Amino acid sequence: MSAQSSNILRGLKALSGPFPTWDTQSLPDHPTDLFLDWMKLAIEMKVKEPHAMTISTVDSDGFPDARVLIIKEAKDDSFYFATGLESQKGQHIQHNPKVALTFYWPELGRQIRIRGIAEDMGLEAGAIDLRRRSPIARAVAMTERQSQPLASEEELERSVAMQEQKIEQDPDVVTPNWRLFAVHAQEIEFWQADPDRKHTRYQYILHDGQWTHQQLWP
Length: 218
Hints:
The chain is 30% helix and 33% strand. By secondary structure, the protein is α+β, with helices and mostly antiparallel strands.
């Protein structure tokens, strides 16, 4: 069975292209500008959910963890997402704010890797973000039970219904545990795949408030 699985996996194609060209002769000084250019192209090329990213954190025992969520904004070399303080990632960040973000668009053969420090933007920013969510997503967030063991689907439905009723009675109601985080980037790598595996990689590094960039080996 394991040999068969290995044959199946090794038989899958990867990075077959064709991929878009990347003019590396005129790289911008700030990596956020390049990030937004790549994001715009992903949207234009109709990449499914181009704003989905993997956020990696580390727990109090030093074990890494990762999950996919949606970026909310990118500006001034900071990248924003929202979560509850009671969630696993929220707890990890409170213990260790160093995180990594990863975007991967297989249709374009492009990957962006970001390492930085996550900062809690405070109660009001979290409240604004929560009110912008759809009613059902807002109700689920307000249960404040993310990642906890679930006894039954009925328990979930009851809890969500209670929060929906609260929102209906008071459209401005929020939970103080919902927060918007800004990841202040320290390093950003842009990776363009090549079918022959001679990938093009450029890494931006922030030092004393100034960005520099260098090419990396594939």
